[in-house]
Amino acid sequence: MDVDLRDTPAEAEFRAEVRQWLAENLVGEFAAARGVGGPADPVHWEVRLAWERKLAEAKLLNISWPTEYGGRGGTLAQEIVFLQEHATAAAPYWVGTQGRDLFGPTLLHHGSDELKARFLPKITAAEEFWAQGFSEPGSGSDLASLRTKAVRDGDEWVINGQKIWTTFGAYADWLYVLCRTDPDAPAHRGISMLLIPADQPGVDIRPIQTLAGTMEFCEVFFSDARTKADLVVGPLNGGWKVAMGTVGSERLLTTLPYQYMFERELRDLIAVLKDRGRTKDPLVRQKLAEAWIGLEVIRYTNMRMITSLMRTGTLNEESSISKLQWSEWHRSLGELEMLLLGPAAEVVGEDYGLDLFQNSFLTSRAETIYGGANQIQRSIVGERILGLPR
Fold first, then answer.
1. Fewer CB within 10 Å: N-end or C-end of the chain?
2. Rounded-to-integer distance, Cα 280 and Cα 265, Å
3. CATH assignment of 255-385?
4. What is the mean pLDDT of residues 247-261?
């Protein structure tokens, strides 16, 4: 596939507009928080929320969403331009990832007009926050084996079960949850995506401390929790296809701004090593060169994915290649950071204070699981792209 990395005149004009806006607004407390946060990172929540609302006022988030839902009504290309410029400026990462980047696009494609009008404007304005209820103990990569049940009771659903690894669950106003609504159907059928209010007696959200010491993940227990019968995204018992669209978005578009931060991380590593005189070692330079080459491969792969997305309007199985590349590369970079920084990398600050590279090393261990475990991605590449037998 041909890939043209140059901006069109319209894209160049929009890029200049974004740069100017960032230069004028990325000041004060926002400038002091440059580079903080990530799609699954709870640090500096309040300043990132304030920044997100500032972006929302300027309609620089949800650029491609329709204007009736608070978007700009722009193009996907403009969305990509914004992500690139936002990352280049090292602006704080917004906190509404689950609603804005994952659930929102899913609702746009699969939701009823009533559900879109009810929920999308509040997501766009950063007024309501969402969390995902997909994985369960024993049902992570094998998501179709989930056991959380929803039983119809008049004009409501009654939900019982457990979810885990619910990112930002402690901040959520609503949960979008996969439930088994037809226990007699085959594994990939009989599943529906329900929208469940988090603030009710039947929902118990418990934070989980991660290896890096953060608390962004939660486990959620549903005990006769309730939600209205019409709060179903997509067809009843058709939630599997709806959820696969969400996971496809997670593999590329949601992680793109995160990947754009990798270049800055590698640049920071080189600066630290240079300051310590380590870059005089030819073996160190070779390792850094290999890391840079890997980052370039990721960049060109993503451009092919973006080109395909803009031409067809959908993400195909090739997004699994992108997911495999960036997650494996970033995990290897974390290991390289610990190796090259030496024994000092094993010492943490007061109250388990991790520096940039220590945090990256620890959090990157989980990135091969985000958006579908890499073992699953390899099966998708083998079977659906290469045509290999199951």
1. C
2. 20
3. 1.20.140.10
4. 67
Higher pLDDT, 231 or 251: 231
By CB atoms closer than 10 A (0-12, 13-18, 19+), residue 304 is middle
- What three-state secondary structure class fits 245? helix
319-341 and 356-367 helices, crossing angle to 10°: 140
Helix boundaries (H) for 145-281: 239-251, 256-275
When pLDDT is averaged across residues 20-27 and rounded to a whole number, the result is: 97
Known catalytic residues are 250
CA-to-CA dists, residue 146 to 132, 138, 179, 189, 316, angstroms: 14, 8, 7, 11, 24
Q: Which pair of tokens denotes residue 173?
A: 């106003």
- The topology (CATH level 3) of 9-95 is Butyryl-Coa Dehydrogenase, subunit A; domain 1 (1.10.540)
d(CA 140, CA 144): 9
Which segments of the chain belong to CATH 1.10.540.10? 9-95
Q: What is the pTM of this model?
A: 0.86
Q: Give the per-residue pLDDT at 311.
A: 73
Tokens 């979810």 -> residue: 163
Report the run of H or E that residue 106 belongs to, with start and end: helix 104-110
For residues 316 and 14, which has the higher predicted lDDT (pLDDT)? 14
